[in-house]
Amino acid sequence: MEPVQSELRKWMQQNKDFQANYRQIREDVLNDPEIKAFLERHPQLTQSTINKNLIRLYEYKTQSKQCDRCQSFGGCINMVQGYSPVLRVENGDIRLLYEKCYNRIDYEKQKEQQNLIQSLYMPKDILNASIADIEHDSERGNSIRELLLFLENAQSELPSQGIYFYGPFGVGKTYLLGALANALKEHHVSSTLIYMPEFVREMKNSIKDDSINEKMNYFKTADVLMLDDIGAETQSAWFRDEILGSILQYRMMENLPVFFTSNYSMAQLEEQLALTNRGGSEMVKAGRILERVKQVSREVSLSGENRRDG
Ligand code: ADP
Ligand code: MG
How far is the CA of 171 from the centre of ligand 1 (A)? Predict the structure, then answer.
């Protein structure tokens, strides 16, 4: 009899642990703020349905929701990499679904972009830029207000005008665009940021292969287009009229915003665009481009210290 009794005692002991464990898990699950909110939204769910689905609710609780606990796409902590859990009620029962995380969606989009356009490279500090890091800077007050306004409006509908940031070298113009791109990403709006000198080079190189139309299309229709350092590129009449002009024309007609950074004010940029490699001045053509720049963006000046020195 001895072995049976000790087995029985062991079983009862384990069972007690199990029950205590179960109660603890149940309490943890029901105290989870998101699960609480979910259950409040669905008062029709009975205790027995909740008990039956405890493991599901527990799984939901342990997973990162839309990357809230993950560092990056590569650092996803979820059971299914790049997927985020969602609770639903169907036919009186609880269902646990997994949806793509925005980091995954963004990763896939970027992959797609990288396959098409080689020069969409962002330096690391710009890639990690965040609006929270720039908020307390008084000299940038106006630019940040404009940026936040755009962001707020973008949550209901993408505004038809972006911002043209101009100011001296190193004040953080490109950084602002990076921070905006990251904030927009959280609202599922993708941005395409390209450095103008690279842009010209890329487009010139793709005349040889057949990718130029596909690339043009891509820049015309991107949600938010960000042209970094306009005016710093080698001036070419072809690029100005056939590429830049037609992308801006399209976006103007379709009410799609464009952001710019530049060392030049809009008036100075017009003069810059008038000087082409053909020699001579082409004020009329430059003026036509400027009209479109003004349609798709608002001019905002940015001053302050040169951050590259510090
Ligand atoms: P610009 O485009 O105006 O020439 P950048 O945006 O490249 O200037 O900024 C210059 C440097 O300062 C970069 O290394 C950038 O990461 C850094 N920087 C700019 N603004 C900030 C900020 N608000 N917080 C932290 N670093 C910043
Ligand atoms: Mg810059």
Answer: 6
Q: What is the whole-number distance in angstroms between the Cα of residue 95 and the centre of ligand 2?
A: 48
Per the CB < 8 A criterion, the answer to whether 59 and 96 are in contact is yes
Residue 104 confidence (pLDDT): 82
pLDDT per residue as tens digits for the range 220-275: 999 999 999 999 998 899 999 999 999 999 999 999 999 999 999 999 999 999 98
* Residues, CB within 5 angstroms of ligand 2 (ion): 174
* Domain assignment of residue 227, yes or no: yes
Burial per residue of 223-258, b for 16 or more beta-carbon CB atoms within 10 angstroms, e otherwise:
ebbbbbbbbbbebbeebbbebbbebbbbbbeeebbb
Q: Which of 60, 76, 101 is the last residue before a domain boundary?
A: 101
Residues with CB under 6 A from ligand 1: 125, 133-134, 137, 169-175, 261, 307-308
> Which H or E run includes 152?
helix 141-154
Whether residue 137 sits in one domain with residue 232: yes
For residue 282, count other CB atoms closer than 10 A to its CB: 19
Nearest ligand (C-alpha, residue 126): 1
Host domain of residue 44:
2-101
**Centroid of ligand 2 to alpha carbon of 173 (angstroms):** 5
The C-alpha atoms of residue 17 and residue 22 are separated, in whole angstroms, by: 8
Name the closest ligand to CA 231.
Answer: 2
Output the pTM of the full model: 0.70
Report the separation in Å between the CA atom of 178 and the middle of ligand 1, taken as the mean of its atom positions.
10
Measured from the Cα of 134, ligand 1's closest atom is 23
